[in-house]
Amino acid sequence: MYKKICVVINPDSKEALDLYEELLSIFSKNSFQLLNDFDFKNIEDMDLVVAIGGDGTLLKAVSVAVKFDVPVMGINMGTVGFMTDVEGKKAISEFQNYLDGVRIEQRSMLEVEFKIDNKNHTYKALNDIVIARGASVSMVETIVEIDKVHLATYRGDGIVISSATGSTGYALSLGGPVIDPKSNEYFLKPIATHMSQFGGVIVNSESKCDITISTRKDAQISIDGFIEYKIKSGDKISLKISDTKAKFLRKNPSNYYWSTITEKLGIRKGKYI
Question: Could you give the residue numbers annotated as active site?
Fold first, then answer.
């Protein structure tokens, strides 16, 4: 079913490169192209993107896949791999099953727009958008509006805006909830503010969030952890749920998520209860 395959690997992982070369030799009837430098400018047409690495590699693979509207298969070579579907040691034996066709799961993405030096920027993020202070210890003030109504002004280290998929990432470490991955809602949580104990807010998928930056020093915006820009006082950032969906190949039914997530978080056997 999937003949033209783009493989995205962590360039620092010898294990990922070894696995790619093994796939290349076994599945020689398929055409493969390798992206190991995260330079996505000269990409050929494809049917499937395979990410070999951890969640960081998978996020980069998604940024490629959405441009071609194709699914991603995630092979975990890291320690946790919340978003991957196959453990590295099982990839060779299970690869053909994925090529033959399995369930396609769709995940909501965030869409962010902002302007820097009179240039407009638009990006899509599977995981999260983080607005934070830069190297300076000075706090950053984020003025947050939901559908043009003032929600709050947070003063501290910044704010995280997370999709349902990203709720197991940075947002979780801040005390946020794990959101069902099928959900279209998104989550806002301040970082190290006087309201840090505030649980944050879950925003419905139809609502738009506008954030205005106020800071005496430098600040930055990070998109899925690998796209970063410096921002300054007065800059405005708009966020919403994108019309674009990320697609993943999944072998197991959707309810399997809750079994794997509790296992990976270490709470399945009451470890943290």
Answer: 55
